[in-house]
Amino acid sequence: MEHLTRRYGSQVAVKDLSFTVPTGQICGLLGPNGAGKTTTMNVLTGYLSASEGRVIISGHDILEEPMEARRQLGYLPEQPPLYPEMTVEEYLRFVAELRRVPRTQRAEQVRKAMNRVAAADMAHRLIRNLSKGYRQRVGLAAALLGDPEVLILDEPTVGLDPAQMIEFRALIRQLGRKHTVILSSHILSEVSAVCDQVLILSHGQLTAQGTPDQLAEQLADRTRLQVLVLGNAEIAARAVHGLDGVQEVHAEEENGKTRLEITLNAGADQKQQAAVSLALAAAGCAVLHMETEALSLEDVFLQLTEFDPQEEDPPEPPEADEDGYEDDVVEPDEEEGGPQP
Length: 341
Description:
The protein is α/β, with parallel strands linked by helices. The protein has eleven helices and 15 strands.
């Protein structure tokens, strides 16, 4: 993806986004709601056109060679486009036909896809009777038809219970052995457990890129001390404020004890920690416990995105014009590949 920008009217959903995902890697797009993840996915798959920039899939520009680029892709949207009145096998045969899988290979590809996602025992069940977890598996099986090089998964575990999430993450890791996988998520544990590379988006822009460990190291510009003392919160906080290297102090008091969260400058050593301990003791606040807290991926995420739980979703796509079509949507070529389900 090279310098991608996508606008909805005057609002910019994605701005100057560039990244490369090497073959055989699982890459996670991480960001809060409204960060531009789904818009990025839609441009990657050709469902939306870019306002500016290029997308190249396995050497094929998705604008100049849309059908060739799409043949390299398997896409699982956040809500798979399933037909509830069909059985699992009927639906997958239908998708295989849409994807122009040769007639002689369809039955075998459908069988393999069901086996890979552990849904073969549901082949003759109506989709309307499947659980959320199995519906996701069927959607993923559809994405695997045609054996695409790249799998794009948009929030693949949304709505799953904890056991289903663990199973689905294991499935994604298995698929990563054969396919390049790009998945979007706002679940930190999911990204850190599954992905080789993480791209953090905020307000439509790329704010950081690397492995989970690299991102934590990249932002390790401060050390956090957790300290438990006997004494008043106000007195304890005042004692450490103003010490060299102290950036922030948060204090909470309960039952005569105060818990302090003290943020120190980068490279804080034992001398700085000792200075904090001595200052607290001089103020009459005996230190009961002190430990250094490592920066987690969640800390990185919050710092980079300035996450706000009330952040609004991105603007809605433009309404259809008088002909009933959205100007910005790239429609599939019916003669070359047929409509997408």
